[in-house]
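Budget justification, computational time. The allocation requested in the original proposal was used primarily to generate structure tokens for proteins on the priority list. As evidence of use, we reproduce two of the resulting records. The first is shown immediately below.
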Amino acid sequence: MSQRPARPSLGLRILRFLITRIVLGSILLGLGMTLGQMLIASLLQSFALASPEWVNILVAVGLSLSLYTLFVRMVEGRPATELSLRHGGEFVQGLAPGALVFSAVVGILWLLGVYRVLGSNALSVLAQSLAIGLIPGFVEEIFFRGVLYRIIEESLGTWIALIITSVLFGFAHAGNPNASLFSSVAIAIEAGLMLGIGYTLTRRLWLSIGIHTAWNFVQGGVYGVNVSGIDVPGVLVSELVGPAWLSGGGFGAEASVVAVLVCLALFAVLLRQTYRRGRLVLPFWARQRV
């Protein structure tokens, strides 16, 4: 007669409860990133060393990867398979759709007379854009999709996780320059849904990180459009004209209805693939009835 598996202890069940894991993950990543970056900056200052953009990138990316791996190992007692280097090629696969989707947004705005090119800059401006692509691409995806979305989806299912984390992601940008209620809602719909379903499709973070990185990099570095309200010099010097709902105003094209519609199209493509692979997760109460 087979024995029933031993039930985890009360302490372990509390530790691995949804709310507990989210709180611990948020504290570890938030506090760890802050203290780690402060320590590196202090060391560089002590030795009178410069802090070029590539150092900031390495520190932020390295800390986010290390802290998340530590969190999963210590709290969940497993390896961080969603960041397995064996599937790191999915990061590269995500770069193309991220770049193409924003290029489509700019192309449509250009055809409508909303996006205008005024001049150009030297290629050296791409260094800053690389940072604003890679740092949020890794740090935000590891927190919003790795901690929040993944843990919520495990319990409440894909659709509830998409709604909750998309709203949180959108309004996390509410404090950015030139932000508005519409810009927060737009970010929630276009990025929250698109990046969340990217994780669900692969069960790994690399695809979403790649899409997010390329979206930011191309937006600021190539087309010279504000990235979530932040002015980033690009190879092209440009301007957005017309009503804010169409151009995005000072926040940038992410707050344009065009971006919302284009990103929803990519979301629909990824959702279809996710559904066909049977990757959608039901909420726990629906799973109990199956």
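The second record produced under the same allocation is shown here.
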Amino acid sequence: MEAVNRTDVYNISNKMNLKIVHFARGTYIKANGKYSKLSCNRFFVPIMDGGEIKSYIRDMKNNFDLAVGNIYFIPCYHTGAVFLTENLQFISIQFNLELYRGLDVFFRLGEIKCFYEPEFVERIKQSFEYKNDYIAAAALRCVVWEMTVKLLSAMSAVQIEALNNFAEFSDIIQYISKNCTAATSIKELAVMHGSSREHFTRRFSKIIGISPKQYLNNALLNRAIQMILKDDLLSKEIASELEFSNEFYFSRFFKKNMGFSPRVFKRIHFPV
């Protein structure tokens, strides 16, 4: 049999960038059931629950009581509610998988997913328990990649085909990811695309799945989150860097889109 060279497969593989942004185990009672969203994908993996009150994850389509043996997935930028009791012990993995910088593979998934995978849960637990950091890191990436296979397999043919069309806007997407501010306009992006504002908006919405305005908002939120978490800047400084007219407008924008003010968001989702 002659060798079959799947060039498209390894080219796509080389484009995929997996970034783990959070890996933790324990309890977390600050998740109080309020609707919010994050700029990264989330796996919740319950590993022990001795309480009578059920923890849950829900969105507008699904409502899941958390049970040991299941793995729950919330796509990036998807609005969901998480309620966790003090009795639920779980492993949390947060990550992004990008074909192009700033464009996550799963942002169009549109709903929370649940997989019954008790044997796989044990592998996730083992990945956390390795004492050697390098072995733990390799094991973590392995389990996340395997779960992405399940997620991709659960996507519709239309959703998968959309991934092939993203290349048309790859330069614009990467520009937005690196440079977007509150002052970035749709007209500016349309000029980069070489089309009118109206044509660009229609084409972008069709290919990417959301309007360029919403995509800009998501990218701006992601930049703000990175600054909140990594740079320990004041809201006034972040507002200035991202070209908001003032810190109050920035805080209002952030709360409207994320469900919390920047200060509360950091305290709840990423406590020190």
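A brief technical remark on that second record: The radius of gyration is 20 Å.
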